[in-house]
Amino acid sequence: MLTKRIIPCLDIKDGRTVKGTNFVNLRDAGDPVELGAIYAEQGADELVFLDITATVDNRKTLIDLVRNVARNVNIPFTVGGGISSIEDVSALLNAGADKVSINSSAVRRPELINELALQFGSQCIIVAIDTRFIVTENGISEHIVHTHGGRKPTALRTLAWAKEVEERGAGEILLTSMDTDGTKAGFANELTAEISSNSSIPIIASGGAGTMEHFNEVFTVGKADAGLAASIFHFKEIDIIELKEYLREKGIPVRL
Amino acid sequence: MKTVIIKYNAGNVQSVMYALDRIGVNYLWTDDEAEIRSADKVIFPGVGEASTAMAYLREKGLDKVIPSLKQPVLGTCVGMQLMCKHSEENDTTCMGIFDINVKRFDSSNFKVPHVGWNNIYNLKSKLTEGLKENAFMYFVHSYYAEISAYTVAECDYVQPFSAMLHKENFYAAQFHTEISGKEGQRIIENFLKV
């Protein structure tokens, strides 16, 4: 049976993980390669590396990092942040990334999704959607796609954009709710379920994980195919193996 | 031992190379017939679309070379599908090493592609020696090879399908051995020992 995936996300700046970590067994808490390998060992199903600097100077550092991760990690991993062209994707895949995640560049120029899917195959193209529930100009509260780390609203409605990226050839959607992100109060289950039910590609839910129960909810109520989180894994508030054992007891199929 | 990875236009094989590096195996990445024929082990990976890949193999004459190889050959993902007779992906005639068809998953009740970790069972291959029944492997595909006499491992998504195939010196896996954790690595190691 196809299992639900648990995906730790590592924020990268200048080739180092940014948020501190609470792993006592790490030699170097800032080393993404070592952290990635430990997560893989602990049963993470995939990894996401998000480059939050994403300046031209840092691309080479990022490529070196990707190469090192690929050499040392034997599970799939995705790289995101600042990707806006076929050349960017080509460099990351050639360095050993299994998938890339694009966000603002797809909003700016949606044809990029088609071009990347045609060139590299849908299986390695994730479109990340940052969404926030806001009152729009016409006075209606709606889920609206945001860019710039969730600060800048676009004209796109989240549900319509999710459908569009699928039609353009995205292989998966990484849906981050800016309303729940950082709250540790649970994922945006209602919105995730709505998008997942209307979509034939997998949905990775992100934003709001605080407890193991939240993962159970995002898979049952939220109908997500994968759950992504950062700090709760870095600070060992939740252990991946314990989380998977908990989910298995709840009847969620997991890889253990 | 000489290990060759067949070079063609089917996507990124960097992960396969790194997986061999982790095992400590030297390899050559080539489309040269003489190099391929002189190898002890041949790996035929693949990420991509069937008709484009077959067109390239024909252009290079590799569609005739691969089925005539006598040493152990391991095809993975699209590589495995190209070793079958026909693929529904753009109605493609494939190499026919395995006399079976590759069909598209019915997407009426399931998400397609099949993405993620799924368990493989009814393990009957030399390559799965040391693995437990229901070991998890990483899959990404929209097309599947039907169950047949060549099936040596099964997986279930929409319906049971062939996770692994075997016939004489030809071995094949639908999943990505190179990123399927320790169990995936075990399959590569077993292949290199065949």
Explained architecture:
- The complex is a heterodimer of chains A (256) and B (194).
- Chain A is α/β, with parallel strands linked by helices.
- Chain A has a single domain, classed as Alpha-Beta Barrel (TIM Barrel).
- Chain A is 37% helix and 24% strand.
- Chain A contains ten helices and eleven strands.
- Chain A has an eight-stranded parallel β-barrel, surrounded by seven helices.
- In chain A, helix 1 packs parallel to helix 2.
- Chain B is an alpha/beta fold and 194 residues long.
- Chain B has a single domain, classed as Class I glutamine amidotransferase (GATase) domain (Rossmann fold, 3-Layer(aba) Sandwich).
- In chain B, 24% of the residues lie in helices and 31% in strands.
- In chain B, the strands form two sheets. A nine-stranded mixed β-sheet of chain B has the order 2-1-3-4-13-12-11-8-9.
- Chain B is globular, with a radius of gyration of 15 Å.
- Chain B: Its EC number is 4.3.2.10, 3.5.1.2.
- Chain B: InterPro entries: Class_I_gatase-like (IPR029062), GATASE (IPR017926), Imidazole-glycPsynth_HisH (IPR010139).
- Chain B: Pfam families: GATase (PF00117).
- Chain B: Its main location: cytoplasm.
Strands, helices and their partners?
The complex is a heterodimer of chains A (256) and B (194).
Chain A: E1 5-13, E2 16-17, H1 32-42, E3 47-51, H2 56-72, E4 77-80, H3 86-94, E5 99-102, H4 104-108, H5 111-120, E6 125-135, E7 141-147, E8 152-157, H6 158-168, E9 172-177, H7 189-197, E10 203-206, H8 212-220, E11 226-229, H9 231-234, H10 240-249
Parallel strand pairs in A: 1-3, 1-11, 3-4, 4-5, 5-6, 6-9, 9-10, 10-11
Antiparallel strand pairs in A: 1-2, 6-7, 7-8
Helix pairs in contact in A: 1-2
Chain B: E1 3-6, H1 14-23, E2 28-30, H2 33-37, E3 41-44, H3 50-59, H4 62-65, E4 73-76, H5 78-82, E5 86-87, E6 92-93, E7 101-104, E8 114-121, E9 135-141, E10 143-145, E11 151-157, E12 159-167, E13 170-173, H6 181-193
Parallel strand pairs in B: 1-2, 1-3, 3-4, 4-13, 5-7
Antiparallel strand pairs in B: 5-6, 7-10, 8-9, 8-11, 11-12, 12-13
